[in-house]
Amino acid sequence: MTSVQVDKHNAGNEAVSDPAEGGEGYKRGLGSRQIQMIAIGGAIGTGLFLGAGKGISKAGPSLILAYAIAGLVIFFIMRALGELLMYRPVSGSFSEYAREFIGPFAGFVTGWTYWLFWVITGMTEVTAAATYMTYWWDIPQWVSALVFTVILYGANLISVKLFGELEFWFSMVKVTAIIGMILICAGILTLGFSDAGDTASVTHLWDQGGFFPHGIGNTLMTLQMVMFAFLAVELVGVTAGESKDPKKVLPKAINTVPWRIAVFYVGALIMILSVVPWTNFQPGVSPFVAAFEKMGLAAGAGIVNFVVLTAALSSCNSGMYSTGRMLRDLALNGQGPSFFTKLTKNGLPLIGTTVSAAMMLVGVWINYQWPGEAFNYVVSFATISGMWAWIVILICQIRYRLKSDRGLLPKSEFRAPGGIWASGFSLAFIAMVIVLMGIDKDARVSLYAAPVWGAVLGVSYFFLRKRNPQSAAFAKRS
Questions:
Q1: How far is it, in rounded angstroms, from Cα 69 to Cα 75?
Q2: Does residue 157 contact residue 353 with C-beta atoms inside 8 Å?
């Protein structure tokens, strides 16, 4: 895309008379309040509320350092995405940039891979949400899963504003839970109340075998689960085509990454591990539940169950939203069935969202029929497919920066700190995480699935090009 093309593109946008209309036919219905919470909520999920117990038992207090380092990399990734979004804010986001800066095949792979990531995530999360419901009521899981899917599907077909409102309140529950836990722990440390008051101390961070009780090697091995906890943080990029005033709202949301990771992950773990020694935690048990029990708060398990239920529903909601947009972006570029391009009068991708929701329900049925290893293998692929989006973002930002610095493209108004060096470091870090996945027998199945999916996409693209040569063209400009 030359600078002349960019000028024409910008001029075309200026000609749009209705500021509520997005450049791709979408409605700009997501306000600053909603985008902020989508950005915050995307980084907080079951990986923290449930999965951190395994990380603590494996690395001890040094898990805090793992989250801090991984959080820095996530910040670099999000700033790289922000630079691209301010250059060209489009709903297709990652796949659009992949087509422009890497090639049409990369856009094809990225779009379909990100779609699959959210479909698989939706399958697992709606199943998990149904499981959480059995904590209070003896309801068949398939009934809860069906009800949740239908409700979220309906909400996503009413308006993009309703999607944003649901995400706002889902995220508010998670944020309130973490801040509440931090304040309670701070009160215990300073005032000494509750059953944990007599033993609570920040010295727990180093007096139970040291800060690295199992060695630095074990801490490194937790980086994969730490990075997985941050999957979906990039979702804010998909909202670009439907954000009110994206050039003001999106940078503000992205710049909240450092403090929200510092507070919600690093801060929360520091407080919890100061109140409860790390030796009290074990895999499969939420650190929040363990901390509540140590404090003598019997309602803790119910509170955490409600929070993880909202986290799972939030993930399903995000999956409904993003999959429809990805399918439409692929279709607009000739890389998916043309019927996915159709929008409702409210500017919503009806067919893409419907197909994706149906796939999620099929996943619930598969999990019901084969709840063992076969389904777990499919689910494990979500992790590597999610990281693929990060890799594409970083590569595209590097190529964009090199072109903009040479004057071939206009410079972004939101340039990433560290430039190509920060993105290069982040790519090296992700490569290290992938190597660690190969070493871990429980995680390496993700790597086995990736070549199979790549082969499927390669064959599909070969036949697509023969049938529709236009699909091999570079990204269309909205």
A1: 10
A2: yes
Q: The pTM is what?
A: 0.88
Q: Are 71 and 265 in contact (CB under 8 A)?
A: yes
Smallest CA-to-CA distance from 200 within 298, 64, 294, 63 is with 294
Helix axes 373-405, 104-133, angle to 10 degrees: 140
Neighbours of 467 (CB within 10 A): 9
Q: Which helix (H) or strand (E) holds 75?
A: helix 63-87
DSSP letter at 24 equals: T
Strand partners, 30: 243
Please state which architecture CATH assigns to domain 34-407+418-462: Up-down Bundle (1.20)
Q: What is the pLDDT at residue 6?
A: 34
Highest averaged pLDDT of the listed ranges 252-261, 298-307, 354-363: 354-363
Distance CA 436, CA 134 (A): 35
d(CA 448, CA 377): 9
**For the chain, what are the domain ranges?**
34-407+418-462
Rounded Cα–Cα distance for residues 55 and 39 (Å)? 24
Which tokens hold the place of 72? Answer: 């820095």
